[in-house]
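note to self: dont lose this again. the chain is below, predicted strucutre after it. 291 aa total, dont forget to put it in the shared folder this time
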Amino acid sequence: MYGCVSYGRIMKGKEIPFVIIGAAMNAKKKKGREHGMDSNDLMKNRFRELANRCYRENRYTFTDFLGLGELADWFEVEQELRHVPYTMEGGSEGAERVLLRFGSEEMLGYEEAFPIAVLEVAPLQAKFADDLSHRDVLGALMSLGIERSVLGDIFVSKTKTYIVCLSTMVEYICRELTQIRHTSVSVKEIAELPKVAVGEPEEVNVSVSSERIDGVISKVFDLSRSDTVELFRRKLVFRNGRLEENNSRMLAVGDKVTIRGFGRFTVGEFGGVSRKGKQYISIYLYGKRKK
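---
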């Protein structure tokens, strides 16, 4: 079950919604820890449960929003659950946080939309508004008792913020999110995420010795080779949503690479070769952060 909202009491008498599936997962996590299971095993079991429920009951099932680490857990059991089709959606092209939907129209005979909504947050008085960060917005939401699992990507600009969330959270967030830091805000649901919110990637061209992922990352983010290898050791590198531990992996056109704490990029076209034998590659870059 997803998106079923109940209301509970917290301090100061404020009512907050929580997603029952999330509450159930917390109970399962506690029970799992008591039996020596780690969070990765619990997440994999959750995927098995949702996929098999879809298969048995002939209805769609959905996860909450998944981050990169949770998606890595999914890809470890993907082949095991290949008897159940699935799709991913996060509210925007290239979303980092996504829902998994088990089932398909071909399998079930009907279509069901993802329970995703988009909220627009604007200051009540723009000239007095703080310069808000992603952390400011997320912190304000978490202070309302909202779990991260019901929130997708958050896009912050100078004038407006856009929040992707489960559709069951719309009413509560619109009503309760009235201030972020010192800025009073209004919140409303909109039909879809504006293209301007996601922003256009920066196209950069790099020259590398080969298409190896560590060499490309080193060039894109201006890191030494040893610092780049350390990213792999710390399990911070993801390729096409999967944890990438092979730093010598050869990249292909269209590969999407995310490095936690740095940003992400998509591999564009491979160009020619320089006189010194360097390979030219076009990169579409989001959130470049040099060391």
